[in-house]
Specification:
Layout (H helix, E strand, L loop, with lengths): L2 H6 L8 H8 L6 E3 L24 E8 L2 E8 L10 H19 L5 E6 L9 H18 L5 E5 L8 H8 L2 E4 L10 H8 L9 H8 L1 H6 L5 E2 L4 H13 L14 H9 L9 H8 L4
Parallel strand pairs: 3-4, 4-5, 5-6, 6-7
Antiparallel strand pairs: 1-2, 2-3
Helix pairs in contact: 3-4, 4-5
């Protein structure tokens, strides 16, 4: 890409959660629900010496994308690593439930989830886990009516229980900077040792869990440059698609195939990018 083209781009990765929601919704349509002035912050963080945030690190914005009613759920990766607790998780789950209710009442509301999260917030462990389970149920319910689009841009990535939520989305959009995995690098290193996974080895991490690899292995559906306009255009095209189109059936319905592939892999061997592509790539 030429230097003028690079300079004209607005990085989506560098935007905060609220700015990302603004970038996706039609101008003038942004309406924040359960916002920072509604007093919905975690009651648990302060007890453990952590300063809470007024919106608990989750933005719920309702509006339109190219005229289509859409709710954008954006996780703020800069607050507690995008971790989800009771309040933030309830905001996402509740918004998904209301979007499904809209559809049952004749308003075809879509959902876009902007993942930037390490998963459950450890300070609110069981409450966060319960909220994430409700998010999973909300996605599965809503995607019966309208597309649920997930976007992983970077810099935090998407890990833990929210990586399952990403896998449940109708379509998953990633950038080169994105990462997607059930366990984060530091957790794997802590539990299995540095010989298994060096969390400081950035080339290794991105070669296994980065956006380019996830596209190659069929665990993500659209690959986009880190450019707000390009991501917005991709999301808008997906929002406009008829329900239950991409992919059909949902990726989560193919769990038997994934289990079969994993059963043939020897975990005693050190995984690398080529191995992962061989295991998860198109068998044809």
């Amino acid at each position: 890409m030429s230097q003028p083209a690079l300079l004209s781009r607005e990085s989506f990765v560098e935007l905060g959660a609220r700015a990302r929601a603004h970038a996706l919704l039609d101008p003038g349509s942004f309406r924040e629900l359960a916002g920072p002035f509604d007093g919905l912050s975690s009651t648990w963080l302060a007890r453990q010496g952590v300063v809470p945030q007024a919106d608990d690190g989750v933005i719920v914005a309702k509006g339109t994308i190219d005229g289509h009613p859409t709710v954008v759920l954006a996780i703020e990766g800069a607050f507690q690593g995008g971790s989800l607790g009771e309040v933030g998780g309830a905001k996402i789950a509740g918004a998904l439930e209301l979007a499904a209710q809209d559809n049952r009442q004749g308003t075809p509301t879509r959902a876009v989830i902007l993942f930037e999260t390490g998963g459950v917030r450890l300070q609110e462990a069981n409450l966060g886990l319960a909220a994430i389970a409700e998010i999973h149920a909300g996605i599965v319910d809503l995607r019966r009516y309208q597309p649920v689009i997930g976007v992983i841009a970077g810099q935090v990535g998407c890990f833990g229980g929210m990586s399952i939520a990403a896998g449940l989305c109708s379509t998953l959009v990633v950038t080169r900077e994105a990462r997607l995995g059930l366990n984060g690098p530091a957790v794997i290193e802590q539990e299995a040792g540095i010989a298994e996974y060096d969390s400081r080895d950035r080339p290794l991490i991105w070669s296994l869990t980065g956006g380019e690899q996830r596209i190659a292995t069929g665990l993500a559906d659209r690959y986009v440059e880190d450019d707000s306009a390009a991501i917005r255009a991709t999301v808008a095209a997906l929002v406009a698609e008829p329900p239950n189109q991409p992919p059909t059936p949902p990726r989560s319905a193919a769990y038997a195939s994934y289990l079969q592939r994993l059963a043939g892999y020897d975990p005693a061997r050190q995984a690398d990018a080529a191995t992962v592509r061989a295991v998860f790539g198109d068998p044809s």
